[in-house]
């Protein structure tokens, strides 16, 4: 157990036995991508530390927002949780819905993974790239049913029509192709496909970032309605903090593969404690010219360090306005609970209102 996660790890527990209100728990998740040289005889000369020893849990029926700058490890974390990428280390405990059985996704065999994939689905970021242009909508939405051998051909078609209605599309669109739909409609098709097997947990990987603002609201409202109707649990990934505030119950802020702050939505937006969270929130525009004129933007100096060679100590210290030499550049900050259910990984945390 590393110092950086020990307090939070003790809080959520090491064992696979999850409290009844917890659906998914991530323990010490690590994902590294090897850096190699050579053409025929490749030799590893380093590694990109995309996700570096993070822990968190997601409760039943809630939406956990995962935010941060591009390249901080959000999508990699999500793909490791679903085992679309093989984790380098750590555990991912998931509570299955039917028999309340707990499975370690990180070490599960192929047959076990196939079974639990029915309960874990993902909606991808780009609706233009995530749908096969050679398949009809009916074939796309029915594909999970075919893969898992669910129902007859007629029953699958009925299920497709039902799902299209659930996401706000006409069943008459089933025989059309993706290019005949707008971006928002394509994302609805992706949502319908993800719902085909009645999952209990869904990863939403920036599902609205490629859509127009007016369409974003429609898709977000759809996801909230589905969550309420079907009892879904979400891991919502985004870099738009306004969107995250709209849909999330709790928010985790990532920086360079680490969790910097984790708290309830209102606590994090109204009383952020980590300097990185201060900077992120100061960049969110407010639709009130009087308030906006009084705000001061926190500008971070320098660029994000390379995950192939992250800084020592606190990974944010190279850009942090509060960093102190001999502390922040040496010691890795522990993720500590400074307020009830408000966790911060900073040597010098400070409540700072930015709205």
Q: Would you write up a description of this structure?
A:
It is a single chain. The protein has 355 residues and is of the alpha/beta class. Helix content is 30%, strand content 24%. The chain has 11 helices and 12 strands. The strands form 2 sheets. The protein has an 8-stranded mixed beta sheet with strand order 6-7-8-3-9-10-12-11, with helices on both faces. A hairpin with a 2-residue loop joins strand 9 and strand 10 (258-264). Helix 4 crosses helix 5 (153-166).
Q: Beta-strand level of the residues, as a percent range?
A: 15-25%
Largest sheet: 8 strands, mixed
How would you spell out the order of helices and strands? HEEEHEEHEHHHEHEHEEHHHEE
Low-confidence stretches: none
First and last CA, distance: 37 Å
Strand order of the largest sheet: 6-7-8-3-9-10-12-11
Output the radius of gyration: 21 Å
- Number of E-state strands: 12
Task: Offer a concise description of the structure.
The protein has 355 residues and is of the alpha/beta class. It has helices spanning 6-12, 74-81, 110-116, 137-147, 153-166, 183-195, 213-230, 241-247, 265-270, 275-282, 289-294, and strands spanning 22-37, 43-59, 63-67, 89-95, 102-104, 120-123, 201-205, 233-238, 250-255, 258-264, 335-339, 342-345.
Provide key terms for this protein.
11 helices, 30% helix, eight-stranded mixed sheet, 24% strand, four-stranded antiparallel sheet, alpha/beta
How are the SSEs placed, and which strands pair?
Layout: H1 6-12, E1 22-37, E2 43-59, E3 63-67, H2 74-81, E4 89-95, E5 102-104, H3 110-116, E6 120-123, H4 137-147, H5 153-166, H6 183-195, E7 201-205, H7 213-230, E8 233-238, H8 241-247, E9 250-255, E10 258-264, H9 265-270, H10 275-282, H11 289-294, E11 335-339, E12 342-345
Parallel strand pairs: 3-8, 3-9, 6-7, 7-8
Antiparallel strand pairs: 1-2, 1-4, 4-5, 9-10, 10-12, 11-12
